[in-house]
Write the structure tokens for this entry.
Amino acid sequence: MMFSTMALGRILPRSFYERPTIEVARDLLGKVLVHGEAAGAIVETEAYLGGDDLAAHSARGITDRTRVIFGPPGHAYVYFIYGMYDCLNIVVEPKGQPGCVLIRALEPVAGVEIMRKRRPAAKKPEDLASGPGKLTLAMGITRAHNGVDLTRGPLVVRAPADMRRVEIDVTPRIGIRHCADWPLRFLVRGNRYVSARKQAGVG
DNA sequence: GGTAGGATGGGCT
DNA sequence: GCCCATCCTACCC
């Protein structure tokens, strides 16, 4: 296991999230998402930008669904996809500016038993949270968490005190049509808990 | 090891 | 009515 459950540090402050989307997407790697007894180190993220990033849900402006993306940073944006799954994003950039980071994979560090119960289809630990739909199931995150403040709990992100500096691989984002070649997917190099491992390695 | 196809329902034009 | 920031199963090497 690359990340340990020991010395879970402080909750990331709002100032961490109030920065450019790509910076936050990279810096979230190695941080630990905590919900109840379940915790997982973030090992894969994607940046969804404002401006001309047509792959972003915010690209067509404020709607009932996308309102939270335009709100204050450090809140959860959870959306429903393919009729079955919920995906977790973290809102970044100053209030009023769209930008969010999709959390795509976790390396479990605590609560593996409850994750297994929530993910009966997972055959091995690498399957528990190695995808955006899988990790919300494993962590017990649903659309009910849309808009919650991640600096307050019960859903939080912590910075492990003993965190090593990680090497980062960059690739295009997964499963999108627009801006399909933009290098906005970030992975912890060599980690076995990422999704679609074969697509890693652009740099 | 690999992939094609289906499940399933909300958002938006 | 079409599009989706997905996952699982069945099936094939």
In short: The domain at 8-202 of chain A is CATH 3.10.300.10 (3-methyladenine DNA Glycosylase; Chain A). Confidence is low (pLDDT under 50) at residues 199-203 of chain A. The CA atoms of residues 55 and 177 of chain A lie 7 Å apart.
